[in-house]
Recover the amino acids of this structure.
């Protein structure tokens, strides 16, 4: 595995920086995680899929909030006009006609109670801590770092293209309607990642800023990886490590 923490020490051209960022995804994006491999291999129980959907909702629900945090750093009206599309994608026009609502539909289609999902009270402690850390990062770090952290969207079409066909083929209770959330995401992610990548290539113009950008993407990959680590620990091998108060699948 590459040592990304010194990758920009000698300075990088915009193309070289992009290549490093893409290598971060190739090595550290969560499509490499065993939980994802078990999902696409058809090896998760229904309870494990339910736990995944319920916990991932915490992340989906925080996306418009982290994007609003990013907007507080942005002085350029043109940047704000482009970035706020992300909030509209997830909240929709009325708060419940966008991506968050479609993820809630995914979870309820798997048999999880809607109020339990929306309350987030049954999510794993590690999930809540990871999501909170991501939100804090986008509030506290520079605009450039926060934008760079969103570049996991460069790799989301890969995981969607692995996940959706496999789930439809290997879980007879999963339908195209269950996974409707993913229908729009590749197009949205491509639009958003193109904008963010162009911004990073332009503004990461010193070795220090380039390293901050790389570290931000590594951090974001770590967040997504940690969420699957928590699911694997709690629900893998029969669910013997579920913490008190967290979601427990029906026997």
């Amino acid at each position: 595995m590459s040592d990304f923490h010194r990758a920009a020490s000698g300075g990088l051209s915009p193309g070289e920086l992009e290549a490093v960022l893409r290598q971060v995804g190739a090595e550290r994006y969560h499509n490499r995680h065993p939980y994802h491999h078990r999902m696409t291999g058809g090896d998760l129980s229904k309870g494990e899929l339910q736990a995944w959907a319920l916990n991932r909702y915490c992340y989906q629900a925080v996306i418009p909030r982290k994007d609003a945090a990013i907007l507080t750093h942005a002085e350029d009206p043109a940047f704000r006009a482009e970035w706020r599309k992300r909030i509209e994608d997830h909240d929709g026009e009325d708060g419940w006609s966008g991506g968050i609502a479609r993820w809630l539909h995914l979870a309820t289609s798997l048999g999880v109670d809607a109020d339990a999902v929306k309350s987030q009270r049954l999510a794993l402690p590690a999930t809540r801590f990871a999501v909170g850390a991501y939100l804090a990062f986008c509030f506290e770090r520079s605009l450039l770092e926060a934008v760079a952290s969103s570049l996991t969207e460069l790799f989301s079409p890969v995981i969607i293209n692995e996940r959706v066909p496999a789930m439809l083929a290997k879980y007879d209770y999963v339908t195209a309607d269950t996974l409707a959330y993913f229908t729009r995401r590749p197009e949205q992610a491509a639009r958003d990642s193109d904008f963010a990548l162009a911004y990073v290539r332009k503004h990461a113009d010193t070795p220090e800023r380039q390293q901050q950008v790389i570290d931000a993407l590594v951090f974001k990959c770590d967040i997504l990886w940690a969420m699957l680590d928590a699911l694997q620990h709690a629900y893998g091998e029969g669910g013997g490590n579920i913490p008190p108060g967290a979601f427990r699948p029906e026997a």
Observations:
- The chain has a mean pLDDT of 97.
- The radius of gyration is 18 Å.
- The chain has one domain: 12-235.
